[in-house]
Amino acid sequence: MATAINKLAIFGPGLVGGSLAGAARRHRLAAEIRVWARRPDAAQAVVARGWADAGTTDVAAAAEGADFLILATPVGVMPELARRLAGVRLATDAVVTDVGSVKTFVARNVAPIFEAAGITFIGSHPMAGSEAAGFEAARDDLFDGAACILTPHAASLPRLREFWESLGCRIAVMTPNEHDAAIARISHLPHLTASALTLAALTDQADIVSLVGRGFRDTTRIASGDASLWTEILLENHDAIEPPLEDLTRRLAALLDFLKNRNEMALRKFLTEAKCLRDQANDPRANCHG
Amino acid sequence: MATAINKLAIFGPGLVGGSLAGAARRHRLAAEIRVWARRPDAAQAVVARGWADAGTTDVAAAAEGADFLILATPVGVMPELARRLAGVRLATDAVVTDVGSVKTFVARNVAPIFEAAGITFIGSHPMAGSEAAGFEAARDDLFDGAACILTPHAASLPRLREFWESLGCRIAVMTPNEHDAAIARISHLPHLTASALTLAALTDQADIVSLVGRGFRDTTRIASGDASLWTEILLENHDAIEPPLEDLTRRLAALLDFLKNRNEMALRKFLTEAKCLRDQANDPRANCHG
């Protein structure tokens, strides 16, 4: 990495925060890695795994003198964490980022606190995660090949970009609004869909649960995500989720109509267009109309 | 396998049929394996891979003297194939099965042809597949750990059961109607949902296609399946698909309502119940109410 980090501080070593510690260590991005967690054992687990040099439950001890800080807690906790960090003496060139999945909330409730304290803050959202939660599921290659969306409110973008690129991420830059609209479509809507599909398919069908194949498993996997965490995320981004959710409901109603009327041509057209778009997600150069 | 096969004949060496040839070879289930395909090169590809001893485009040549026959073509082709097989001299103890995904159609349009000819026919549906199609995607371990549903119309069930168990499948026995109702929920509804979700998320959103993460990819993967094949399957099973599709549409409408009214409690309850059911698909002993 062109701009080496002296002291990296990570707040919240769960799946993403813990993986960040591991990835930063693997890529030797920082001379020193510190993690802060609410529970002492959570902080010590990262140290025990060799992914951090120090673990603490003291925000000031983790942040003191740090030049690269990452908030990896649930977004609801970030404003309070930001207020505590604003009172700590960081390195003069410090950059703070987060990995939250809802960026207008962060722009409104987190970024201003750092700005008022004269601290550089830029939002990040690495598109890497899992239905699993917690440090047990952390992996030092979690970010390999993932997209990472940056939502700059401030300067120092090159340094942040280089950090994520060093972890193997592809970078996209957006405003917080653009980010939230995109994530509503490719993350939040799929979560709601997987949950609704699971309930529609399996409610009161105990005898068929054991029959499901890889198709069903993959289609519904993310429904196993933490319900409280997702409730928070979805409510925070409800404005952006509602239009595509209405769109999805209309499309399913159309499919029902095609089936009831044996409209083979319309059904085939629907499935063909969907296949074409989905193939593009694997290969953006795929040509839908070739 | 307790009941070894002398001559195994597989009709239609695509993803499933080709994988069956490979799996039968790997597990040494048959003294001789023959494949029939419409195109000579498709039949020869299986022989070239070492998964069949003979490949032919002649139905009678493939079937003559066979004691275990598997129809692995699209179900729409099976009645005609059955009529041709009914005129061939099979082994006296021959068992015929299929791997089609819609079983009332098979019970109505395929089984009677074999019954009239005095040939034992029992439907099978191994819950293994992929969004990929064709022999190129075939794998000799495709059936490892998969569920396989048998829909007996006739005797000789133990022999069929042992065949699938030898390939690593877990067996369930159902009537064709029960099969189609179950598959509507765990295969056909997920396919429609993945297609509709892809269109709702990505239509006219070319700039976000490259951002999708593993969650979106998995949730929509099956939408890349062959559109013509799926149009046929879905129309054949429309009766069984309509009730769970209506249920899904209602649940998505409820979610929209929860978001619009910031009904945190209802949203969390919905996601919690879905997580619980989905966790059971990974571990049937998971306790939802513990």
Write up what this structure looks like.
2 copies of one chain form a homodimer. Chain A is α/β, with parallel strands linked by helices and 290 residues long. Chain A is 49% helix and 14% strand. Chain A has 12 helices and 8 strands. Chain A has an 8-stranded mixed beta sheet, sandwiched between helices. In chain A, strand 7 (147-152), helix 7 and strand 8 (170-173) form a beta-alpha-beta unit. In chain A, helix 5 packs across helix 8 (176-202) and helix 8 (176-202) packs across helix 11. Chain A is elongated, with a radius of gyration of 21 Å. At the A-B interface, helix 8, helix 9, helix 10, helix 11 and helix 12 of A face helix 8, helix 9, helix 10, helix 11 and helix 12 of B.
> What gyration radius of chain A follows from the Cα positions, in whole Å?
21 Å
Strand content of chain A: 5-15%
| Largest beta sheet: strand ordering of chain A | 3-2-1-4-5-6-7-8
Query: What's the N-to-C terminus distance of chain A?
Result: 41 Å
Find the count of extended strands of chain A (DSSP E, 2+ residues): 8
Helix count of chain A, per DSSP?
12
Class by SSE composition of chain A: alpha/beta
Largest pleated sheet of chain A: 8 strands, mixed
Assembly status = homodimer
Mean pLDDT of chain A: 93
Largest interface: A-B, 88 and 88 residues
**Helix percent band of chain A:** 40-55%
Order of SSEs of chain A, N→C? EHEHEHEHEHHEEHEHHHHH
Low-confidence stretches of chain A: none
Shape of chain A: elongated
Characteristic key phrases:
homodimer, 290 residues, 8-stranded mixed beta sheet, 12 helices
